[in-house]
Write a structure and sequence with these properties.
Layout (H helix, E strand, L loop, with lengths): L1 E5 L2 H23 L2 E5 L6 H7 L9 E5 L1 E3 L10 H8 L10 E3 L7 H12 L6 E4 L22 E5 L2 H9 L12 E5 L1 H5 L3 E6 L5 H8 L18 E6 L8
Parallel strand pairs: 1-10, 2-3, 2-6, 3-5, 6-9, 9-10
Antiparallel strand pairs: 4-8, 7-8
Helix pairs in contact: 1-2
Length: about 240
Amino acid sequence: MGIIICKDKNELGEKASKQGASAIRDAITKNGKANIIVATGASQFEMLGNLVKEDIQWNKVTAFHLDEYVGIPITHPASFRLYLWKRFVSNLPFPLQGFYYINAEHNPGQECKKLNEIIVNYPIDVAFIGIGENGHLAFNDPPCNMETEEPYIIVTLDEACRKQQLGEGWFKTFEDVPKQAVSMSMKHILKSKKIICSVPDKRKAKAVRDAFNGPVSVNVPASFLQTHDNADIYLDTDSASLLK
């Protein structure tokens, strides 16, 4: 695991995207294709804005969606499917080989089953992820489930996670924030060959400190990045401000 501290979120987004793009190109050169995971949220704005400009053979890339709320349609402003269409897919110069969105609007259990049968055939070359204010990866809130072997699972969101979604402006009231989501599991995220983790902003400083200055613990899901031998964590001076 490596930690790269940038002067601000713009530099963070540029550097993280360049390294991620390089890893995608390497996978295409080696295997003729690449499989990636794409995250959402405010922490990914700058990284995705730069990634879509990279010179990549996107028609040789298959992407998977990291997580999605249960019960909201793609037309909802907080839908991560909508986010990824607006900020990633629609900005590419030509279509991906494939993109497997999570549709958890009506039958999340069936959606997990469907995606689990698909993703086992696509070992992940590069995972673009972030860290939540409560230390979660994807929607694996503390204490995270490190037992399941299922790639996608239904999870219950804790109060801190739901408050973050409200604070970022995705919902009008706390009561509007869904209580459940479909999330890629911790074990499956950690199976990725390369992890690019983008974590800007002061509000993430405590989570960053707990994840990388403390022990590996299910109570700080992001701490498991310490166990990955090819994960790079991109911080800005604000998010890195509490690191020793």
